[in-house]
Design brief:
Blueprint: H1 2-11, E1 13-20, H2 23-32, E2 37-44, E3 47-53, H3 57-67, E4 69-77, H4 79-88, H5 90-106, E5 112-116, H6 123-132, H7 146-156, E6 160-168, E7 171-178, E8 190-194, E9 198-207, E10 209-210, E11 217-218, E12 223-226, E13 228-229, H8 232-240, E14 255-256, E15 260-276, E16 278-296, E17 299-304, E18 314-322, E19 333-349, H9 352-368, E20 376-384, E21 393-405, E22 407-411
Parallel strand pairs: 5-7
Antiparallel strand pairs: 1-3, 1-4, 2-3, 6-7, 8-12, 8-22, 9-11, 9-15, 10-12, 13-14, 15-21, 16-17, 16-19, 18-19, 20-21
Helix pairs in contact: 2-3
Length: 429
């Protein structure tokens, strides 16, 4: 179908209107003589309309005389007619040719260079190496050797493990993958604290001291695994509570470590969803048309697409392409591509069971957006909310219980930790 339309546009075709006592005889005789007609319609009793290729117009005159009908051309479409219009508008034709040549010329250069994927290596350093390898803004695209630039980046920048150079239009993208350099393990004093409220399900300590146990309820910010290791005597004193420490020797100094471990807890979430029993709105029908215009100052010239939008209600999406400015020269020429999508009104009626199901899915979706990665749902419950007066909405609340890790690392300064007495160092005699 697309090839057929393209061939007709190149050859040129017209839409004719046939009037007479027997327009059907005119159409049948034309078809019998091998003249191809399409889009045949009958708008009136003695009137017929059809589309025909341009090279078949002359034989129709003889058929019209034999059938005592008359025909006239109502629409001309195709490259020959467009060419005739341009011949009568030479200034416009020259402008269009210059526009296309200028667009081709300007699209032959590299105007933008983008660097992605780099964190430790600066973009300025990467662009400097790429420039030495032959990649610069304003260069001709066919002079760019992407493989040479990639090789130079990997040789001159040791922190890069892989580099890719891609040319798309007038933009060059340099993709970088840096080498993974293992950093030093953080050994500063730190606790494992809770990030949210829950009931402890299991706790596994790798380093530090557990201060909660299974079944305990914790709140956000509460210490789960302490990074303070106390000697046995200090622990006993803290548990029993010493009445006076005036004559007691200085307690042994505590050990501060970087706590590590896994703490899983039961956490509860709530989600809400509502669905109307009768829903009204607009939706896309799937029909759309595209129009391409060339805009010169305030004047628009339609290059492709319909002159009038065939939809009564539609949504418009416009993409404007401009020629890049050069120094202080700004050409007032734009290419406007507009896409029109037809919309229609709809009215959807649901029964209460269907609405409750959809509202429950929306409530669970609201909970799913709150769940962290790795959380495991162990229980879910959906409750419809009752209202005093009847309404058009069905409201559903979701209650979800999950098992997830709630611990996070929080560094601390030993001297600032409350409840821990840090003895002063002994003075030398």
């Amino acid at each position: 179908m697309l090839l057929f339309r393209l061939m007709n546009f190149i050859i040129g075709y017209v839409t004719i209107t046939v009037r007479g006592e027997a327009p059907e005889k005119f159409i049948n005789m034309a078809a019998a003589r091998g003249i191809f007609l399409w889009d045949i319609a009958r708008p009136g009793e003695h009137v017929m309309r059809a589309s025909i290729r341009l090279n078949a117009i002359r034989p129709l005159r003889h058929i019209a005389r034999r059938t005592r009908c008359r025909f006239h051309i109502t629409r001309r479409v195709g490259l020959p007619f467009l060419w005739m219009r341009l011949l009568h508008r030479r200034a416009l034709a020259c402008g269009a040719i210059l526009f296309v040549l200028g667009l081709y010329l300007l699209s032959s250069f590299v105007w933008t260079i983008e660097v992605t994927g780099n964190n430790r290596v600066s973009s300025r350093e990467i662009l400097s190496v790429a420039s030495a390898a032959g990649l610069n803004r304003g260069m001709l695209k066919w002079n760019l050797d992407c493989s040479a630039v990639e090789k130079a980046l990997k040789e001159k920048l040791p922190a890069i493990s892989w580099a890719g150079v891609y040319l798309k239009g007038t933009k060059v993208t340099i993709e970088i993958v840096e080498k993974n350099i293992p950093g030093e393990k953080d050994q500063s004093p730190a606790h494992i604290v809770a990030v949210k409220e829950g009931i402890i399900k299991e706790i596994l300590v790798f380093n530090g001291r557990a201060v909660v146990k299974e079944g305990d309820t914790v709140v956000p910010g509460q210490v789960l695994i302490s990074g303070i290791l106390l000697p046995e005597t200090a622990e006993q004193e803290q548990q029993a509570g010493s009445e006076s420490r005036e004559n007691q020797p200085a307690p042994p100094r505590p050990v501060y470590v970087h706590a590590a471990g896994i703490v899983r807890a039961r956490v509860w979430y709530e989600g809400y969803g509502e669905v109307p029993l009768v829903e009204k709105g607009e939706r896309f029908t799937g029909r759309n048309v595209t129009r391409v215009c060339m805009k010169i100052k305030d004047r628009e010239i339609i290059l492709a697409g319909p002159a009038r939008i065939p939809f009564s209600r539609y949504r418009e999406q416009t993409d404007v392409k401009k020629l890049p400015s050069w120094r202080n020269l700004h050409l007032p020429v734009e290419l406007v591509i507009s896409k029109y999508r037809e919309v229609e009104s709809y009215r959807l009626v649901r029964d209460r069971a269907e609405a409750r199901c959809v509202a429950g899915e929306r409530a669970l979706q609201a909970v799913q957006e709150q769940l962290p990665q790795g959380a495991r749902v162990v229980h879910k419950q959906l409750d419809e909310l009752a209202v005093k007066s009847p309404e058009n909405l069905v409201r559903v609340k979701a209650f979800v219980e999950s098992l997830e890790e709630i611990g996070t690392v929080k560094n601390f300064v030993p001297e600032e930790e409350p409840g821990i007495e840090v003895p002063a160092p002994l003075s030398q005699p």
